[in-house]
Amino acid sequence: MPMNIVMPESMAGGTLTRWLKQVGDRIGIGDVVAEIETDKTSMQIESPYEGVLAEIHAPEGSADIPADTVLAVLHD
Q1: Residue-wise pLDDT tens digits, 17-44
Q2: CATH classification (class only), 3-75
């Protein structure tokens, strides 16, 4: 079953600066998968799920990402 990692409400409008995991990597709950920057702060995105990173939908450098945008998809 696919599980989406999404842009948090608090980071809406940010820029995805770096992926720390790559397609094919096994991800655990709480693992940091990406870094997001806004005009005020830089934060890390943690995975709320466990699985294998199957797809990246927002490449590094993607800017002005709206809240709830799917950034990546994990599979079991």
Answers
A1: 999 999 999 999 999 999 999 888 899 9
A2: mainly beta
